[in-house]
Amino acid sequence: MIIDIKDLYKDITKYMDKDVKVQGWIRNHRKQKEFGFIDFFDGTFFKHLQIVYDNKLESFEEIQKYHVGSAIEVTGHVIESPKENQDFEVQAKEIKLLGNCPEDYPIQPKKHSREFLREQAYLRPRTPLFQAVFRVRSVAAYAIHKYFQDRDYIYFHAPIITSSDCEGAGEMFHVTSFDLLDIPKIDGEVDYSKDMFASPSSLTVSGQLEAESFALAYKRTYTFGPTFRAENSNTRVHANEFWMIEPEIAFCDLEGDMEIMEDMLKYVVKYVLDNLKYEMEFLDKFVENGLIQKLKKLIDSKFTRITHHDAIEILQKAPVKWEFEPKQGEDIAKEHEKYITEYFDGPVFITDWPKDIKAFYMKLNDDNETVAAVDLEVPGAGEIMGGSQREEDYDKLVKRMDELEMDKTTLDWYINLRKFGGCIHSGFGMGFERLLIYLTGVENIRDVIPYPRTPGNCDF
Amino acid sequence: MIIDIKDLYKDITKYMDKDVKVQGWIRNHRKQKEFGFIDFFDGTFFKHLQIVYDNKLESFEEIQKYHVGSAIEVTGHVIESPKENQDFEVQAKEIKLLGNCPEDYPIQPKKHSREFLREQAYLRPRTPLFQAVFRVRSVAAYAIHKYFQDRDYIYFHAPIITSSDCEGAGEMFHVTSFDLLDIPKIDGEVDYSKDMFASPSSLTVSGQLEAESFALAYKRTYTFGPTFRAENSNTRVHANEFWMIEPEIAFCDLEGDMEIMEDMLKYVVKYVLDNLKYEMEFLDKFVENGLIQKLKKLIDSKFTRITHHDAIEILQKAPVKWEFEPKQGEDIAKEHEKYITEYFDGPVFITDWPKDIKAFYMKLNDDNETVAAVDLEVPGAGEIMGGSQREEDYDKLVKRMDELEMDKTTLDWYINLRKFGGCIHSGFGMGFERLLIYLTGVENIRDVIPYPRTPGNCDF
Question: pLDDT tens per residue, chain B (460 residues)?
Fold first, then answer.
């Protein structure tokens, strides 16, 4: 029977001094005159398995020709390893070549630059760094599902193609089945009646608005799906396609919202630390020194809660020469975020933001100037989540949309949610890749997405 | 403290004869002179909670005015119910209106047609039918994640925007940041160099090709994400946007693939039956009589395996007057699928299909005529999954792509997977909505997607 490397590491006593058969790939191959050593991986466990073979094998000379990257099947005997930092290895009885690999295989057992590996995106999950990163991605995604499902949230698939613009930012990709060389027109405008949906349609920037309709039916719901921005920014933290988690909770105010944000984040961080020991040790050692300590500290910390007004006051009193002067009524810059988390030595919820720099759907506070919005600032990551209590008052919502000169026709249903048994409700959004950057220490969003989409890049 | 209705149903002994507070909505309101009865739901449990109030309450007259659909908060005493089919109810001490609802609320406690409810898509999750359907959707999605994660599959987010056309069918939506009224042109062609990705880009029809690269790094992987078809078909089973699950496994042949398909399907069906008793009973009673029995039978059955060739022979010998005559080398029609599952009285894997009616990436069998492909036919659902062993031979793959006159430039990386340690690997795809139609008995795909996208419909 073929086993996984993971099986060996899970319970070696079951296999010690026994024969096993494994299938996987050669990560490194060190050849000596009478021996050979293969660092063998099969993708099921972060640590590789050492295969030892010697010239007593009939095919010894053949095996020595196997290049790094080749797929092989090894039958052998599990023995204790003479190496100090290794508990066991496999003494090969037979090594079969399953899939050859040429000598010019791009992934060699040496340090490759991340830029180079981005060009080899279809091969980079075979390197230790990306094995770790994309397993963190998978396990963190599952932790998020588990957190919400264990707490009776309904997983809601928000529509990807949409006619509503949640953020009103207009930075949306068009979706069309038209031949771009032959767009039907009528009276100088695009004749959308001839397009697939008979209306202009775009890729969603957020599933929140639709999620609210589920919160008002199920009490608790969450989305976890792709979202898009047609933004031409080439930064380390922007991609045109990314995944978002957007929970939405009925009968929940901003305070309750923050409790969930804090609890969820700690849960996911802990889940990853508990389940991916070797991956996290590797990332701590080679990507961000102190990573594990940073994450453990987050789990143990109590998140501070402070209003935007008070945060600005702290910033204004700070003995710091700012690039951007902190001002009441205005947004908070990266340098400010950093100072605030250092000031409180931990994560900080900044609440009650000036309404003019926040979205139309956020609940207007009694001061008529601020909204019940919150950003979570985390040391070493900046803003990692944002949420708000939603405006549940029909008249106030309509008034705000009118002030912003928004088109209400495609959002009539959203407004009507306030008419038909509307209630206090809140939610938040977390960019999944932001979380992964924080969890892995990898600083470029292109390195936490298997096949990133950024301006000029839609390869693979 | 506010509790969920779910808490009461989970362990009523904890709450019996005690005071509780709940928040939710009025599903039905029956008023009598001295009493009132409210069918109350909060979305956390399928069964509603009965609230009883009487004219000893100061606000009795006010409460009697609350319409169906209103959001309320009820404080009351949990008592045993005098009603026969109900274990407990809440005797209200106070009922507060949290959110009003007008009398013309579209969702009334009566039978609404599904067509009508589609127009009210943002309200329909509040009806028992859609409460059930979308909870099945959520729980089935989680079951799928749990199945694969428990078995060390890596969850892979395939890119949504893509430059490759997996199926070669060409039915893809264009994605662009161009102003559709002003498409830049060069030499009579679209000047894609000016578009966001500097290349033509589309919405993915499948994440399989990219998933293969993860299988060849992690051994086991699966996708679970949205896929798209720009197909103008108005049928009960087609939507332009739907979710797919696409597992991919290295060192796995078609036989192994079928084992996973069978095991996974049974697991998910069982998980839903075990966890959603009341939802499934409701669906069995009001949507598809015999639903639960059908699903239980699937779990207990051994799936038959038969080649396409043998299936055609059975069909040709069948004492049936076909609309489409079954022929060797040709596809199998709906009526044939139905006959085959009835013939074997259970699910049937049909394998080894004529290569000309299957995709380019499927492994060519030794006969040079058929490919190692499989469709799973399930009684009452038809084809519910399709899979194949992938062509791992570099030369054969290139030859097949050339025969089909495919453009190899955007798929060079995919072909190269066969060069760099390629190995036998297999996978399959399951349309999530197909599964949900099977699980719920609801026959129209528009009723298992929260906000369906179909030709002419991109509302919400």
Answer: 899 999 999 999 999 999 999 999 999 999 999 999 999 999 999 999 999 999 999 999 999 999 999 999 999 999 999 888 888 999 999 999 999 999 999 999 999 999 999 999 999 999 999 999 999 999 999 999 999 999 999 999 999 999 876 555 568 999 999 999 999 999 999 999 999 999 999 999 999 999 999 999 999 999 999 999 999 999 999 999 999 999 999 999 999 999 999 999 999 999 999 999 999 999 999 999 999 999 999 999 999 999 999 999 999 999 999 999 999 999 999 999 999 999 999 999 999 999 999 999 999 999 999 999 999 999 988 899 999 999 999 999 999 999 999 989 889 999 999 999 999 999 999 999 999 999 999 999 999 999 999 999 999 8
> What DSSP line would sit under B364-384, residue for residue?
BPTTSSEEEEEEEEETTTEEE
Of A145, A199, A459, the CB nearest to B458: A199
Q: Which residue of B has its CA nearest to A252?
A: B23
Residue that has been written with the tokens 């080749």 in this structure: A70
Query: Is the pTM for the entire model greater than 0.95?
Result: yes
Contacts of A70 in chain B (CB under 8 A): 421
Q: Looking at CA atoms only, how far is residue B119 from chain A in angstroms?
A: 10
Q: If contacts are CB pairs under 8 Å, which of residues 44-103 in chain A contact chain B?
A: 44, 69-71, 98-102
**Number of Cβ pairs < 8 A linking chain A and chain B:** 323
* A16 contacts: CB under 8 Å, gap ≥ 6: A78, A79, A80, A88
Residues 141-170 of B with CB under 8 A from A: 141-142, 145, 149, 152, 154-164
ipTM value: 0.97
**In chain A, what residues touch B25 (CB-CB under 8 Å)?**
421
Strands of B48-132, DSSP E: 49-54, 71-80, 88-99
Contact list in B for residue A414 (CB cut-off 8 A) is 122
Report the run of H or E that residue A89 belongs to, with start and end.
strand A88-99
